[in-house]
UniProtKB/TrEMBL annotation:
Its EC number is 7.1.1.2. One of its GO terms (molecular function) is NADH dehydrogenase (ubiquinone) activity. Gene3D superfamilies: NADH:ubiquinone/plastoquinone oxidoreductase, chain 3. The chain crosses the membrane at residues 6-27, 57-81, 87-105. It comes from Maoricicada mangu. Core subunit of the mitochondrial membrane respiratory chain NADH dehydrogenase (Complex I) which catalyzes electron transfer from NADH through the respiratory chain, using ubiquinone as an electron acceptor. Essential for the catalytic activity of complex I. It catalyses: a ubiquinone + NADH + 5 H(+)(in) = a ubiquinol + NAD(+) + 4 H(+)(out). This is NADH-ubiquinone oxidoreductase chain 3. The gene is nad3. Its main location: membrane. It is a multi-pass membrane protein. It is an enzyme of class 7 (translocase).
Amino acid sequence: MYNILIYSIILMFLLTFLLSLLMFISYKSMKDREKSSPFECGFNPFESSRIPFSSHFFLIAVIFLIFDVELVIIMPVILVMNSLNMTDIYIIMFIFLVILTLGLYHEWYNNMLSWV
């Protein structure tokens, strides 16, 4: 118990030191203000850089992430194919693909996939 307290105190001091070092290193002066401003091919920005974000683009990005995560789920199944029998693998993949197909149907039904 005593060791945990000592390690916690040391960790707090270390984190405080690193945070203050980071604040010192990343100090920005008024001269750096131009570097932080938006830049469009040598011209001043034509529009505000704080325009509203397209919700349709956000939905497309979420759909991409869903289909990208499917690879993370499928890859371990491929790696453990030798230890499982084929019927278990087919059942797992079938259930996963049914859930993925239902999600695709839901997105199609709610017109998330139309570009109009």
